[in-house]
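REVIEWER CHECKLIST
Item 1: Sequence provided? yes
Item 2: Single chain? yes
Item 3: Sequence as submitted:
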Amino acid sequence: MALVPYEETAEKGLQRFHKPLATFSLANHTIQIRQDWKQLGVAAVVWDAAIILATYLEMGAVELRGCSAVELGAGTGLVGMVAALLGGGV
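Item 4: Structure as written out by the authors:
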């Protein structure tokens, strides 16, 4: 496990996590997620891993239609939303 110190002004790439709204086009839908790093911390932003996994599911790599799916992530729930839009039940 690695601990990476976070400084708000250090990395410009992290500034997108401070935007109040993240918008994605996935599973033939536009998904908007409110983010709140300052009040709720790291669980209240959409991380790159969620975007990659949601895109992977959208590509049809896993057949979700008619299957039950449970997202065990710790975040905004983007992957679970995409799984549901692709036919996975909960």
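Item 5: Key structural point noted by reviewer: The chain has a mean pLDDT of 82.
Item 6: Recommendation: ____
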